[in-house]
Structure formats: C-alpha cells, structure tokens
C-alpha cells in the first residue's frame, strides 16, 4: 500500500505512514493494515518491539481521512462511518493493550486519529516540531480514539481544557498532560530507530532523552483548574463569564468556535471516566456511543461542511446559544444496546 510501509527490520516490526502530502491522514485501509500487522507480530518471536514513524516534516498524522465519511453521511448512509470508527477503536485498544513495546516518533502535527496510533504505546517520543491536539469539538465530534482516557487522567483539569479548546500542545505540554513520554531532538531519531531495529534495546531512548523547552500549560494550570473544575459545560462557562481576566476572554473566544453539544458531551465523558482505574475499553465504548450518533443527531456533518467542504468557517451548530440541555447530552451518550462496541479477546 503506497500510503503506508509495513515491514520487519531486524528485531522491530516497522510501520511508516507515507502520505506526507495529506499530512499522513489515516484512511480506513491504513488502520486495517496496521491492525493486521499487529495481530501477526503478536505471535512472531522475531519481532521484539514495534516502531511507528511517518514520512515528511509537517505531520506524524493530522487525523482521520474524513472526506469519505462526509460523502457517505450526507447521503444518509451512516453505516460506513460506524464501521470506520468501530474498527479504528478496536485498533486503538489493541495498541494500548499490546504485549510488546510500541515506540512512536511523532514530529509535527499529531491530531485526532493520529493520537490513537501514536499516543497509546509504551514509549512516545516527541521533538522540537511536535504539536499534539484533540480538536474534534471543532468539527462536531468528541475527542475519541481513546483520547478521552488520556484527558481524564491528565493533572488537575487539563483534560477538560484540552478537550474543549483543542489547544495545541508542544512537547513539554504533551508530556505534562500524559500524551507523550520523552523529548529527543529529531536529528537523533534515525540512529535511535536503527539501534532499536538492531538490538531491540529500549534503553537508548531514555539515555538520549532531553529536557524540552517549557510550554504554556504549566503557567496556565492554576487558571485552568479554577475555571474547568465544574462537572458540566454550563459550570465551566459560568466560571469563565464571571471573570474578566485575559485567560477567560481568550478561552471563551476559543470555545465559541466549537460545537456546544460536542463540548457538553466531552465534559460528561471525562467526568464519567475520571477515576483510579482507567480503562481503554470503557473510554472507547463511551466515545463510540457519541460517534455512532454523530452524523444522524450531532453536529459532525455541519462541522465538516464549514471547515473542509465550503470552508466558510461559519458552522450552524445546534444549541448555538451554548445552553445545552442535560437531556441532549444524555441522548448522545445513551448505551447502544445491540450496537455496543465490542472487542476481541486476547
């Protein structure tokens, strides 16, 4: 497949995303190719670890390839999207639970679906150009691909802030928030990957890790924890509206761009997932409740229209007054019964 290069090199199973002109956006076929390789390598004694990287300088993976999702959804066909998301989420669970170390090298943009394949492994490496974000609420979705699990476990209320604003994290921010582990200058990556392929020894990663330049989240944490402490979107908005600080003004401006329904559901998802025993399967099952309904009942098609198709940046969201009834959130996150997301065992 020209969009992805999958092979075994020495002791490493190697996955390289190879569509840099599309910012290495994930297609359904790419997801399934990764899933098939991981299944094969799980019982292959030659493969001691898995290394994932991407071609080009601009992006590791800027998200899922949503053009076909939009095309099918606008025709009233929701089955393709549901299949895409359910199979992608099973891949995300496989990566999180994988029995062999997965090492990801994420330069440039890692967004949305890119988080699902880059941020669930045991060793997640960033560099000077890395920018990680979960901007799904801007197109009428919720942070998914297991991203809600990472957000729910972030220090303080960083998870709510990142999930509701789509804030772009540099390396220091992403390590603080739990999306990555190590900062290593990018010019060292080729030699480290070669060592991993030859020796299968992960010690070379920590031995070459450096301290990243300081990001913005550390200084913002106090404001974030104060204003995003409420359980609902309304709580958060009320707190921000009752404060005349520059932080509140900038944050409200950011929130006004996004789907109110998606933001309300994101806050609820993180509230449900926050706890001492996080579960990737619980996170993905909850996310799928939303994405299953996203085209038919949510703002997803309108979000894509405004951002990608017509590019007018003027989405006509449901609940545009930002007052999302509790019933609307509940309806998007109700159990799916027979359509509940299931996972393979083992």
UniProtKB/TrEMBL annotation:
Catalysis: reaction(s): 3-hydroxy-2-methylpropanoyl-CoA + H2O = 3-hydroxy-2-methylpropanoate + CoA + H(+)
Q: Which GO terms describe its molecular function?
A: 3-hydroxyisobutyryl-CoA hydrolase activity; isomerase activity
Domain of life, per the record? Bacteria
EC annotation from Swiss-Prot or TrEMBL: 3.1.2.4
Q: Which InterPro entries match?
A: ClpP/crotonase-like_dom_sf, ECH_dom, HIBYL-CoA-H
TM ranges are none
Give yes or no: UniProt keyword Ribosomal protein.
no
Per UniProt, which keywords does this protein have? Hydrolase, Isomerase
User: What's this protein's name?
Assistant: 3-hydroxyisobutyryl-CoA hydrolase
Keyword flag Acetylation: no
Could you state one GO cellular component term attached to this entry? cytosol
Query: What GO biological process terms does the UniProt entry carry, in alphabetical order?
Result: L-valine catabolic process
Per UniProt, residues of the Enoyl-CoA hydratase/isomerase domain are 13-324
């Amino acid at each position: 497949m020209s969009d992805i290069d999958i092979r075994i090199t020495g002791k490493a199973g190697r996955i390289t995303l190879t569509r840099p002109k599309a910012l290495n956006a994930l297609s359904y076929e790419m997801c399934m190719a990764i899933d098939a390789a991981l299944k094969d390598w799980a019982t292959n004694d030659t493969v001691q670890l898995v290394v994932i990287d991407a071609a080009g300088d601009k992006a590791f993976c800027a998200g899922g390839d949503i053009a076909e999702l939009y095309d099918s959804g606008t025709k009233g066909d929701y089955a393709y999207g549901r299949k895409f998301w359910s199979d992608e989420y099973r891949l995300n669970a496989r990566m999180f639970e994988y029995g062999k170390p997965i090492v990801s090298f994420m330069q440039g943009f890692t967004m949305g679906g890119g988080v699902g394949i880059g941020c669930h492994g045991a060793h997640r490496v960033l560099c000077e150009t890395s920018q990680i974000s979960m901007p799904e609420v801007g197109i009428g979705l919720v942070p998914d691909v297991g991203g809600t699990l990472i957000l729910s476990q972030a220090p303080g209320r960083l998870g709510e802030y990142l999930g509701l604003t789509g804030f772009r994290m540099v390396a220091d921010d992403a390590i603080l928030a739990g999306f990555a582990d190590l900062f290593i200058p990018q010019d060292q990556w080729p030699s480290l990957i070669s060592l991993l392929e030859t020796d299968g020894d992960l010690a070379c990663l920590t031995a070459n890790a450096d301290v990243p330049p300081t990001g913005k989240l550390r200084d913002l944490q106090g404001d974030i924890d104060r204003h995003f402490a409420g359980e609902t979107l309304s709580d958060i908005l009320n707190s921000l509206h009752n404060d005349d600080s520059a932080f509140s003004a900038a944050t409200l401006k950011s929130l006004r761009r996004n789907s109110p329904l998606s933001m309300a559901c994101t806050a609820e998802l993180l509230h449900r997932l926050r706890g001492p025993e996080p579960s990737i399967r619980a996170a993905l099952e909850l996310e799928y409740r939303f994405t299953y309904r996203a085209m038919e009942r949510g703002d997803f098609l309108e979000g894509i229209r405004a951002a990608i198709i017509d590019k007018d940046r003027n989405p006509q969201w449901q609940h545009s007054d930002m007052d999302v009834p509790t019933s609307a959130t509940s309806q998007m996150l109700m159990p799916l019964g027979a359509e509940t997301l299931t996972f393979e065992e083992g």
